[in-house]
Write a structure and sequence with these properties.
Elements lengths: L13 E6 L20 E2 L3 E2 L1 H11 L3 E6 L4 H10 L10 E6 L13 H6 L2 H4 L6 E6 L3 E2 L3 H11 L3 E9 L7 E5 L5 E6 L13 E12 H12 L8 H12 L2 E5 L15 E2 L4 H10 L27 E3 L1 E2 L2 E2 L1 E3 L2 E2 L4 E3 L2 E3 L2 E2 L4 E2 L4 E7 L4 E2 L4 E7 L4 E2 L4 E2 L3 H7 L1 E2 L5 E3 L1 H7 L2
Parallel strand pairs: 1-4, 1-6, 4-5, 8-12, 14-19, 17-20, 18-21, 19-22, 20-23, 21-23, 22-24, 23-25, 24-26, 25-27, 25-29
Antiparallel strand pairs: 2-3, 6-11, 7-13, 8-11, 9-10, 9-11, 15-16, 28-29
Pathway: Glycan biosynthesis; glycogen biosynthesis
EC number: 2.7.7.27
InterPro entries: ADP-Glc_PPase (IPR011831), ADP_Glu_pyroP_CS (IPR005836), GlgC_bac (IPR023049), GlmU/GlgC-like_hexapep (IPR056818), NTP_transferase_dom (IPR005835), Nucleotide-diphossugar_trans (IPR029044), Trimer_LpxA-like_sf (IPR011004)
């Protein structure tokens, strides 16, 4: 998608700060051992790679990632996959676990506090702008466009917003804007969301993306930290304060989303429930998926493991290694099994006479012979017993596994062990 850029991108004077400390409890057992941003997505990547790749592709070369909840796998992924920034090129990549920098008893108390506690790390870099990002959404966006709007509008804060049907915005923070997209009110999860001027059936929902001038941000964070009644949160405290006492402007995602020729719509997903996570992955198996992961002009960077190619073996009737409308990552072996509309992550083994249909399979899973799995999410490292059938008997599935209202079964090794098979 062609965009008009300034001769010297503002992104070079910006720091991206990714808030990646959330648990993501709605993903149930998928986040028992990892933070939501570290959850696998799309076969090779993790959820956090999308925000980081957007920053990288936008031209931002200073990045900080604040971690907190069960952060080991996330930190390990960042160390392996994002360690190519060089200080001699004025680049930096800081992993910032909650380390009680302000008080020996205080972890990150909110999203704003997660920035404030690292002010002494951020300020010496001297970034003119701060781009605050959530680390748990799937989308492609050029932050340079948002930075340009922020500077041109003279805003104190610019907030990334999605246009959504008005009554679907009840679960978001919603912006009430005037005709120039200046925010006149910010309402958290309203029962009756305000519509957009000129388009009353739509509402502007916050994406959790904020742009500030760094000095302004640090001043207001210090003021907030001194307020004993604050919950130290951008959405609950910082943004409402600026809306009332300063200038807050909405930036519409459609203005800066990155789309290839095959992507008809602006794509943004919160894969924060088991159903949404399953659907987001399965959607990638469509002939022309809504999210183009093959767009080399806006690559999704990640830790690239050295793996052999995927392998399909056996060519006997009833025992043919095959995959239809599926994504298969490296080091997978489909041995006399068949998969349909399925996503296999790195290092899976699917053995003879097994069938997978609409399955999202995380790395290093072994499916033994004669298993039949449909409408499932299988956690990393699970060993599926021979002959196991999931997705055909709702009552039995609900007794053995985590089954959602939409009929998606989440399978972990602990659940398998309890079966005693």
């Amino acid at each position: 998608m062609t965009k008009t850029r300034r001769p010297q991108p503002l992104a070079r004077d910006a720091m991206a700060y990714v808030l990646a400390g959330g648990r993501g409890s709605r993903l149930k057992e998928l986040t028992d051992m990892r933070a939501k941003p570290a959850v696998y997505f799309g076969g090779k990547t993790r959820i956090i790679d999308f925000a980081l790749s957007n920053a990288m592709n936008s031209g931002i070369r200073r990045i900080g990632v604040a971690t907190q909840y069960k952060a080991h796998s996330l930190i390990r992924h960042l160390q392996r996959g994002w360690n190519f920034f060089r200080p001699e090129r004025n680049e930096s990549f800081d992993i910032l676990p909650a380390s009680q920098r302000v008080s020996e008893t205080q972890w990150y108390e909110g999203t704003a506090d997660a920035v404030f506690q690292n002010a002494d790390i951020i300020e010496p870099y001297g970034p003119e702008y701060m781009v605050i990002l959530a680390g748990d959404h799937i989308y492609k966006m050029d932050y340079e466009m948002m930075l340009q709007q922020h500077v041109d509008s003279g805003a104190d804060v610019t907030i990334g917003c999605l246009e959504v049907p008005r009554m679907e915005a009840t679960g978001f923070g919603v912006m009430h804007v005037d005709e120039k997209d200046v925010i006149i009110d910010f309402v958290e999860k309203p029962a009756d969301p305000p519509g957009i001027p000129g388009n009353p059936d739509m509402a502007l929902a916050s994406m959790g993306i904020y742009v500030f001038h760094t000095k302004f941000l640090m001043d207001i964070l210090r003021k907030d930290a001194a307020d004993p009644n604050s919950s130290r949160d951008f959405g609950k405290d910082i943004i409402p304060y600026i809306v009332q006492h300063g200038k807050a402007v909405a930036h519409r995602f459609a203005q800066s989303c990155v789309r290839s020729e095959t992507e008809a719509h602006a794509y943004w997903r919160d894969v924060g429930t088991v159903d949404a996570y399953w659907q987001g992955n399965i959607d990638l198996t469509d002939i022309v998926p809504e999210l183009d992961m093959y767009d080399s002009s806006w690559p999704i960077w990640t830790y690239s493991e050295i793996t052999p190619p995927a392998k399909f073996v056996h060519d006997i009737e009833g025992r043919r290694g095959s995959a239809v409308s599926s994504l298969v990552a490296g080091n997978c072996i489909i041995s006399g099994a068949s998969i349909h509309k399925t996503l296999l992550s790195t290092g899976c083994r699917i053995n003879s006479f097994s069938k997978l249909d609409q399955a999202v399979v995380l790395p290093e899973v072994i499916v033994n012979r004669h298993a039949r799995l449909s409408n499932v999410v299988v956690d990393r490292g699970v060993i599926i017993p021979e002959g196991l059938v999931v997705g055909e008997d709702p009552e039995l599935d609900a007794k053995r596994f985590r089954r959602t209202e939409n009929g998606i079964c989440l399978i972990t090794q602990g659940m398998i062990d309890r079966l005693g098979l």
